[in-house]
Fold each of these.
Amino acid sequence: MRAAWRRAAPVASGLATSVVAFAICLVSADPLAAQINGPDQAPYPPTVREEPDQAAPPPAQPPKPTRHKSAKASTGAPASQTNPDLDADDQLAPSQIKQPVPAAVAQPSGAAKPAIHANAGAATAASAAGPRGSALANSRVVACSGPFSKDSSHLRLAMTYDSKNITFTDVDASGGSKVPASVLFPNNPKNRLEVWWSNPAARSETYLIVINGKSIWTAPGGMKLGLTLAQLERLNHKPFKLKGFDKTGVATVSDWDGGALATLPGGCKSGLSLRADPKAAPDAIAALSADKEYSSSDPAMRAAKPTVSEILIGY
């Protein structure tokens, strides 16, 4: 028994030593627990060590919305700065800080630049350009319209027939007097044509168009130089009346007697002069007095064989 005890004594002695050490740990742990928990709180169990509470994580921020870069930012403009004290939704967008300048309003596709208004004569003359104007310039026909209308002018004639083919000069009038007029093709007897103006100073407002000499111009209704009495009757669709021959051997139409040549398109009127055939007997011509009126179908008048020597177209 004693031997068992002797064998157990070292074990018991070791056990007692462990118990004493554990007790010392308890005694040393009590002041620390008292300092942490305070005098009124129970000490923490010596085997448990609690960690202080960690601060709660901040609430998750919603993702920032994707913002499109403005055209100005894409070209290298500095980006706007954000305020760290404001939420993402409260930040100003770049477009709210500075709006781009609106582009200029484009003109309609059909719009044209405003034209500069020229005077009426130039504007009307310009409209004669092109194929129609070219054909008109090459023709030798007088009509009571276009460049020979009542409201025409020297400028309009120049634009139609080329300025090199027209001049403004004095021409012969009755009684040996002179009047200023525009003359087309003054150096070409066959193409020569006189235009007299109601307003000579402005060279405007057609007053009289004169076809004479060797001119090949044709007047309204088909009248032209050299026609006989019979040919004029065909154009007029009937006989007409004319005065006898004056001292210069010229007879004049006095009345178209309601025929086709009495009214011309465009509101103009015609006047014709006729000269007797140079081979006609002087006595026969003298018998047809200038103060009397004869029919174009009169045998005595037909015997004088007069032909058209001058055509007047007036307003």
Note: The first strand starts at residue 166 and ends at 172.
Amino acid sequence: MRIANIGAELGSDGAALKLCSSAQSFPASFPRSLVPYFLVARSWRRPPFQWTMLSFRKFISGGLPHAILAAGGSATQSREAAMHSVWFGEFMGTLVLVLLGDGVCAGVTLRKSYAADAGWMAITTGWALAVLCGVVVAQAFGSPGANLNPAITLAAAVSSGDYSMLALYWSAQLLGAFCGASIMALHYAPHWRLTPDPVAKLGVFCTNAAVRSPLANLFSEVVGAAMLVVVAASIYSHRVSLSGPAGGVGPWLVGSLVWGIGLSLGGTTGYAINPARDLGPRLAHAVWPIPGKGGSNWRYAPIPVLGDLIGGALAGLLLHFARP
């Protein structure tokens, strides 16, 4: 079973977890962007996943490049490590996801936009392509698993029993979503004052129920998030294809999955299916001085966060026992 998480990318036989003395001695399937991390892990005599959590603290504090230099790496390796890490990959991927996803909502909603009133098909298609772009950016910048979603990260943790990566992933995802929404708001700066409806403006940033019914809304988010995790895991399952999807095909399939969820299940709550995608932009809406905005509807905010995490956890349990 291969779900979109770093453990899956390292291989089920554990061969890629061996600490090697040089980049050339890593298996061919091992992500090249992670080689500097595991080389440093060897020099520090730390287990790889324990070192990954330490690398997060080092990255935030600016100490990671110095650690690689101390381990005998070159200045080039140091610069690459600063800009290619699991944390930075998740941050960049989620930023792109939300920038493009909220961007299509803005284009359809805000007045004097050429895309105004383009409709639900445009929104679901835009979000599907936003997922595709976010995934490939995350992988390019150092996160081979490209979760971009706390619900997927939680599902992977529940399935594997390893919760040590949650803080690293969730912080990057939430900050990336906030920054993506902030850039989107600036991009559409002249259009906010031309759009009179404050509820419509909030809908550009985050989701809301079409019909207010808290239990039904929560259930909708649970189902949507669970479907995302289960089908994404099935796409990468070795029972579907022994070697997994061909190179570069996986992100397209996941984007298509999100497109399908939006078309089939998104009409009730706007299909957040991602706590960071909803909470990060909602925070941006609350913080920035958007002309004519209203409240950020914090009364509804727990539903897409809790519902998606519950859906992810339930899907993780299913994957743990079923092993697709």
Note: Residues 1-26, 29-64 have pLDDT under 50 and may be disordered.
